[in-house]
What does this fold into?
Amino acid sequence: MLTDRLPRIRLGHLPTPVHELPRLSRALGGPRLYVKRDDQTGLATGGNKTRKLEFSVAEAVRRGADTLVTLGAVQSNHARQTAAAAAACGLRCVLVLRGRAPAAATGNLLLDHLFGARIVFAGEQTVEEVGEAVAAAERADGHRPFLIPVGASDEIGAAGFVAALEELKGQLDELRLRVDRIVFASSSFGTQAGLCVGAKALGFDAKLAGIAIDSTREELQTSVAGIAARLAARIGLHASVTPSEVIAWDGYRGGGYAVLGEPEREAIRLVARHEGILLDPVYTGRAMAGLLDLVRRREFGANETILFWHTGGTPALFAYAAELLDPGT
Ligand SMILES: *Cc1c(COP(=O)(O)O)cnc(C)c1O
It folds into this structure.
């Protein structure tokens, strides 16, 4: 495997399933749709961060850390999976979350508490500033903290998606299935960087169509290429991903990060009712809304085979209960 030389701790139940979405496909009048079920990675209700954390936590342990410190939004799936990974590995965990404590700890935040993480709200400050301060205080207290960036999206964590692309390629080969496009939510750039580097290394030619959750195409292309360059060096790949090779659809950012709108609501309902699969309000609901629109506008052809990479996020549904429930349906 491409990532064989990197330290890795098994946290997920891998490989995750790949299967067809026949009813959703029929409802749309084509294309042929498949899903990669990273909502089923097995760590604390699953999600794409499990794959990255296998590498990030292993690196922390290799450096002798006893405490994981990471950063994110209040409903961060990454924070929840980091808290679970810390518990599973016997490490302490401090989560630095944006803004102030909400009135009720629900969804991911509830699970963060159950996993025993210490939670610090950044208030007016950035999570990066507070994260540095927390790490310094931990060191002063005699602990050995390891700081994992937002989304574990550095060249360490992104290796998880090089391995993921290799896993998928093996599954597709076994199914004798060729996909034209892979569609997924792209936010902190690590997932897409890993997929791009994996595809380059393996000569995998499906289009990797990131749906930008909260950044412009230019920001996304530049940042993905940056992580990809460091990641390629880390796995010893002598090839680079240029910004123009990074595919990013940035027309689906709606009201901004974590703001649930009608497109996300429709996508969540449609997939739930046709396939019995839960998407999430922040990432996969938005990415699927983008996929639906691109199919309806015929940007994606009715004869294509498209794989939707489900990146998880289920617990956040419960934090959006009032907005998801529509009286009358
Ligand atoms: C973090 C996350 C993403 C985005 O992954 P990035 O590597 O940050 O681009 C997508 N979906 C879910 C559910 C996530 O938690």
